[in-house]
Specification:
There is one protein chain. The protein is of the alpha+beta class.
Length: about 350
């Protein structure tokens, strides 16, 4: 029996929105969060998708997150802002930051926003992509709890801090770099754990510093390898500076894993208006030509095609919009349990019952 199943994205989004609303999340904020999670699953980034919702719910139920945060502008100029996220859901705080960039960038060419006192914001690409849709080169990044040692160190000191850069095109899919600074994001460890699968060699070590393929050993005191060794470590340090140090946010052990305390995460967002440099139509045409230049490369033996950053995710989304998002059965059954406990409309839960093993 398969341990995953497909459900139409609109059904998943509707159920997740209603579950969040039952936690006293305002409807708009619940929809923002649900859309972010479902979009990650549509792109095949299930590590940052709906499987995260039970963790969010636990934090909301234990009052570790604010259901209706007071997001404040601590300091701002024409082209910058420092936000305090009020310990809200990371998606809600990030939407505020992105909206503020789109508002400010009408009057200036580059806008940077640093954010403190937030929580997990989902896939970084979701926010960078929002900006590129407006003829803006978008950058989003975040710090996370330490899960990697510095080269030569024996203790975790930096997070596998994610970063995304999104660039618009005209005929092609946008170029969207989306990466953690570890060999893989921690969410992939959680995803393997939820599916009862082993992880590949070279992803992580256990609490004794020994390589492991068991995701439970990574979750319980293990650590991840930085991508590219000192290069991934160095990039992670820079992301922490832009997000946490620039915002006077938390670092190190003051950032928490999702449980019964605020995560204390910080973010960084940057928008660059293309028309400050050239006509956006011309730029996007040049980017498309550049994409074709790369894709016209002679291929190595056994390779059928080369891809641009974000291209595989774009294709998965096109496929999954019609075929549905693929969720672990364990996550589906968690959603059913939450829905039943909250006495939600059975019509919302019906598509999930149809694929449940119970």
């Amino acid at each position: 029996m398969t341990n995953t199943s497909n459900i139409q994205s609109e059904d998943v989004e509707a159920l997740c929105t209603e579950i969040l609303k039952k936690q006293n999340i305002p409807e708009r904020d619940a929809l923002i969060t649900a859309k972010s999670l479902v979009d990650a699953d549509l792109n095949g980034i299930s590590s940052h998708g709906v499987m995260r919702l039970p963790l969010y719910l636990k934090c909301l139920q234990e009052t570790a997150f604010e259901s209706n945060p007071q997001i404040k502008i601590v300091k701002e100029t024409k082209s910058t802002a420092l936000l305090d996220g009020g310990n809200g859901l990371g998606q809600v705080v990030s939407q505020k930051a992105v909206d503020l960039i789109l508002e400010k960038i009408k009057e200036t060419e580059i806008v940077a926003i640093s954010v403190r006192n937030s929580n997990h914001f989902g896939a970084a690409a979701y926010w960078a992509n929002h900006l590129q849709e407006h003829n803006i080169i978008g950058i989003s990044a975040s710090n996370v709890p330490p899960i990697m040692p510095a080269p030569g160190g024996a203790e975790t000191r930096v997070g596998n801090n994610p970063i995304s850069i999104a660039i618009p095109t005209d005929k092609e899919a946008p170029i969207i770099l989306d990466m953690a600074t570890s060999t893989v994001p921690f969410g992939k460890i959680l995803n393997a754990k939820s599916k009862g699968e082993l992880i590949p060699e070279g992803w992580a070590v256990n609490s004794s510093g020994q390589p492991t393929r068991n995701p439970d050993e990574v979750v319980n005191g293990g650590s991840l390898f930085p991508v590219g060794g000192p290069k991934g470590y160095g990039l992670s340090v820079i992301i922490e500076v832009l997000s946490a140090l620039l915002s006077d946010g938390a670092i190190g052990s003051d950032i928490k894993v999702l449980h019964n305390t605020p995560s204390n995460v910080s973010h960084f967002f940057l928008g660059i208006r293309i028309d400050a440099f050239m006509d956006p139509t011309t730029f996007k045409s040049k980017v498309s030509n550049y994409i074709q230049f790369i894709k016209s490369s002679k291929l190595a033996e056994g390779v059928e095609e080369v891809y641009l950053p974000g291209e595989l995710e774009f294709r998965r989304k096109e496929k999954n919009v019609s075929g549905g998002v693929n969720l672990p059965i364990s996550v589906i059954e968690e959603l059913i349990a939450f829905s039943e406990a909250m006495d939600l409309d059975e019509g919302l839960i019906k598509p999930f019952y149809q694929v449940s093993t119970k």
